[in-house]
Inverse folding.
């Protein structure tokens, strides 16, 4: 579906909300077919809680500390503190656990995955007793964000409560789409021409094809095979996997062990695949006054996002006295090019109570699932691209060494999420105003302590807090948005020999998300919506870094 590029331009959803002739619709299940500003936000968010095990154990408070491969992604001036060549490798396990307040689990809320937190190499290029004391070059991969999670829930409805079919009907009515028009939207091979309709209506069209909505050919849509007095049970599963990271080439310089300067060129990567399943089951009091009765329907959606970007980092560290280090780093926005693809499928089980349309039915009176108008898939065999920039970042840090044994390091970071921009799009100015209205600058505090109680061993602890970037965290957006993150960590470092060291870290983090609905649709006359849901995600991360010094 190469036409999706132009369709996206006509179907831009500023808040994941489709607006057509006064009917507003959206929600977790409604919007995955198109990108929105929150996709930009979610892929741009990082708190530097990963990297090497040492850095993670100190909550990423490395702006002034240096001497670690993670410095290349935080403050490249820290590269200048290396006194030897080094190779590091950090495997890790992530264990995500979701909590949905007030609703029962459906398919579980756990997601585990093996990952690589860091791989890095540092080489000494120059060492001197005068002038530039040392010049070091490094190449490193550092994990920046984790998109692995799974959550699910189910609800039990009462007679006459809302179905997603109500929103589908409202969308098609407001969009001026008729069943006659849809019946004529096939090519010569019998393939439906999805490219004739913007993605806003894809789910609603699938709903028509599976018997959920009808219009009697007059353009006013309503429920089809679902009685209005039906009790609606719902079942939802959201599963995501992927990550954001970057390859960094860095150069760090040491000026007399007093002043350190460094810069990095980063090649960022993003990969995220999200599966959303939504189902409804219908219960009736007696037989409804329908010719055909829907018992349930299933809606599966898959979206894939991949992208690359570039950025630049500049940093400095000043050491006024031996025990004190003060650091500052500036990160340019990352300039991302993202490709996005989407596919979905919908099925229903419908019983023919009075088979007036002469459908093929089985021995139990149910319409044959092979009937093309009742089982349908939308397959996106192409993708579309979009370009955007992440926030500008400023990092400040200070660290102090007590009695040459205990190091305390504290960082402050400011990220201007209201400066994110959509590029190479006629809708960029609209996004600019919307982003300024929704997002603000965020604040991050990180603190870490390292106690080297014997020369061969160190104990570390860390804490990080991110304030979020939303003006209004109580607002119901089209998708759950993280508004606060906290992470705590503890670790152990062991010098095995002159050339080998091991670091171990356990990290616990929590993401608190805004309330959301699985679907909603409203205008001046009607208001259809699911109940409001609240989800939080906790992650348990176990990391180990092996370092070779030579």
């Amino acid at each position: 579906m190469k036409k999706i590029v132009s369709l996206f331009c006509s179907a831009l959803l500023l808040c994941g909300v489709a607006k057509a002739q006064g009917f507003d619709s959206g929600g977790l299940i409604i919007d995955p077919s198109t990108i929105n500003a929150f996709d930009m936000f979610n892929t741009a968010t990082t708190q530097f809680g990963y990297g090497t095990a040492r850095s993670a154990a100190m909550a990423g408070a490395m702006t002034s500390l240096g001497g670690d491969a993670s410095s290349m992604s935080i403050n490249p001036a820290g590269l200048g503190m290396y006194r030897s060549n080094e190779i590091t490798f950090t495997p890790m396990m992530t264990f995500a656990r979701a909590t949905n307040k007030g609703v029962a689990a459906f398919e579980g809320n756990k997601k585990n995955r093996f990952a690589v937190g860091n791989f890095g190499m540092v080489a000494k290029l120059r060492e001197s007793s005068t002038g530039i004391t040392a010049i070091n070059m490094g190449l490193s991969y550092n994990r920046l964000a984790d998109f692995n999670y799974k959550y699910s829930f189910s609800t039990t409805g009462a007679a006459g409560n809302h179905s997603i079919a109500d929103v589908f009907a409202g969308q098609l009515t407001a969009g001026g789409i008729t069943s006659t028009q849809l019946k004529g939207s096939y090519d010569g091979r019998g393939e439906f021409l999805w490219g004739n309709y913007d993605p806003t209506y894809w789910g609603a069209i699938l709903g028509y094809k599976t018997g959920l909505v009808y219009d009697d050919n007059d353009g006013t849509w309503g429920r089809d095979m679902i009685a209005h007095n039906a009790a609606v049970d719902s079942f939802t599963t959201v599963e995501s996997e992927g990550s954001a990271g970057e390859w960094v080439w860095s150069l760090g310089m040491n000026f007399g062990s007093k002043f350190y300067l460094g810069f990095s060129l980063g090649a960022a990567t993003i990969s995220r695949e999200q599966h959303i399943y939504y189902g409804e089951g219908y219960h009736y009091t007696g037989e409804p006054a329908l010719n055909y009765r829907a018992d349930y329907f299933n809606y599966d959606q898959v979206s894939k996002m991949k992208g690359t970007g570039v950025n630049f980092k500049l940093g400095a560290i000043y050491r006024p006295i031996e025990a004190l280090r003060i650091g500052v780093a500036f990160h340019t926005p990352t300039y991302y090019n993202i490709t996005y693809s989407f596919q979905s499928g919908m099925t229903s089980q419908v019983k023919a109570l009075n088979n007036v349309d002469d459908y093929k039915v089985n021995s139990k009176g149910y319409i044959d699932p092979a009937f093309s108008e009742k089982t349908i898939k939308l397959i996106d065999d192409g993708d579309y691209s979009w370009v955007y920039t992440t926030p500008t970042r400023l990092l400040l840090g200070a660290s102090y060494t007590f009695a040459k044994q205990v190091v305390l390091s504290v960082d402050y970071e400011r990220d201007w999420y209201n400066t994110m921009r959509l590029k190479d799009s006629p809708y960029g100015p609209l996004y600019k105003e919307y982003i300024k209205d929704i997002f603000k600058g965020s604040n991050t505090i990180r603190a870490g302590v390292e106690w080297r109680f014997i020369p061969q061993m160190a104990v570390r602890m860390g804490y990080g807090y991110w304030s979020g970037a939303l003006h209004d965290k109580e607002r119901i957006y089209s998708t759950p948005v993280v508004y606060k993150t906290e992470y705590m960590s503890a670790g152990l470092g062991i010098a095995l020999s002159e050339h080998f060291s091991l670091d171990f870290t356990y990290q616990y983090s929590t993401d608190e998300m805004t309330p959301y609905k699985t679907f909603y649709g409203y205008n001046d006359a009607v208001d259809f919506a699911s109940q409001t849901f609240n989800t939080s995600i906790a992650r348990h991360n176990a990391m180990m870094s092996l370092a070779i010094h030579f």
Q: What stands out?
A: Helices lie at 4-10, 37-44, 53-57, 71-74, 164-174, 179-183, 202-209, 428-438. Confidence is low (pLDDT under 50) at residues 1-20, 370-375. Residues 4-549 form a domain with the Porin fold (CATH 2.40.160.60). The first strand starts at residue 18 and ends at 20.
